[in-house]
Amino acid sequence: MAERLSINEATIRSRLRKLEKSGAMRVVARVDLGASGYPFTAVVGVKIRGRAIDDVAADLLKIPEIISILVVIGRNDLEIQVIARTMDALDDLLTNTIASIDGISGLEKALATKVVKYVQPWGSFE
């Protein structure tokens, strides 16, 4: 940052520390999914029948490759984002692991060809 702004590194560090102490800003790390070995991302619409949405969502929470779960209004009941290391792993997650969860009656799968924006939730380092 200092190099890009042509400012002394100590000055940047001091300013960042002040912003953090004031509560105006928090410096966090963001995971690069591709660099972490997860180059495949799918957005999946989940249709649920015969079981509560929250119960199905609780089962989906147990799958570490699912990085987001949204309850939605529309054609689907849930929208999830799934990451995988290989296309075979993604296929297995979708066709075996996720599809076999009790209450899931259908999946609308879309493979992401490019991630234009990825916002990771902030976590606490305390």
What key phrases describe this protein's structure?
126 residues, alpha+beta, Alpha-Beta Plaits, four-stranded antiparallel sheet, 4 strands
Would you mind describing this structure in some detail?
31% of the residues lie in helices and 24% in strands. The longest helix is centred in the first third of the chain and has 14 residues, at 9-22. The model has no long low-confidence stretch (mean pLDDT 89). The protein folds into 2 domains: 1-30, no CATH class; 40-111, Lrp/AsnC effector binding domain/regulation of amino acid metabolism (RAM) domain (Alpha-Beta Plaits). The chain is elongated, with a radius of gyration of 19 Å. The protein starts with a helix and ends in a 15-residue tail after the last strand. It has 4 helices and 4 strands; from the N terminus they run ααβαββαβ. The protein has helices spanning 2-5, 9-22, 53-61, 87-98; strands at residues 40-48, 66-71, 78-84, 104-111. With 126 residues, it is of the alpha+beta class. Strand 2 (66-71) and strand 3 form a beta hairpin. Strands 2-3-1-4 form a 4-stranded antiparallel β-sheet.
